[in-house]
Write a structure and sequence with these properties.
The protein has 236 residues and is of the alpha/beta class. The protein has helices spanning 5-16, 80-84, 92-105, 117-120, 123-134, 139-145, 156-164, 177-185, 205-215, and strands spanning 29-38, 41-50, 55-62, 71-77, 109-114, 170-173, 190-194. The chain has a 7-stranded mixed sheet with strand order 1-2-3-5-4-6-7, sandwiched between helices.
Length: 236
Amino acid sequence: MGLSPATVDRLLEESRTHDCPDSPETCVRVVAVAELPSRFGEFQVVAFWNERDRRDHAAFVHGDLFDKERVPVRIHSECLTGDAIGSLRCDCRDQLISSLERIGRSDGGVVLYLRQEGRGIGFANKIRAYQLQDAGFDTVEANQALGFRPDERDYGLAAHMLRLLHIRSIEIMTNNPAKIEDLRRHGVEIVGRIPLVIPPNPRSRHYLETKRTKMGHLLEFEQTDDEPEEPSAEAR
């Protein structure tokens, strides 16, 4: 069973006049809730709207999470190339599928889908960063060459969405300590971490190694002697 009709009505009513003048950049409202049967199980999709940046965000909810503790939560930032096209340059699609499968098998959980493409730098800049990576930069160096920090995301938005859903505490599905730190800074009570490590493919290994060595992601995977090396930029 998911969110009850009475709970849905309450969430919509609370958001009808919702405002947050002290943090308008992360202020979202619940604008619609609908059933969403999926290949991963029975979900409800909650649509959020940010009036300031005119972006919508989503929560994919499995089970009745209202006023619950220790809720498994995956906070997933949009990755068009990975999520929709199946890019092998990153592990985004595999992380999204793995989290939906785990939550779909559990008593309850939620995937927050944030419109923060390219770690917050936007789609066009992400592809510019890809161009630099094709020339030999790693993912951190490419972002910095474009004038950005390695990660421009702010999880205040996710914290706000969790509050609007009345989720009291979470078990976060992540390998990223910075995500945990930022969520706690925004008032989210995190009572556990669920690792979400995807074995690298030949095209994503360098990307994942860079996340581990330069960004502190909690990643461990075996080196395989027979794994083919990624061709150099000159050879592609």
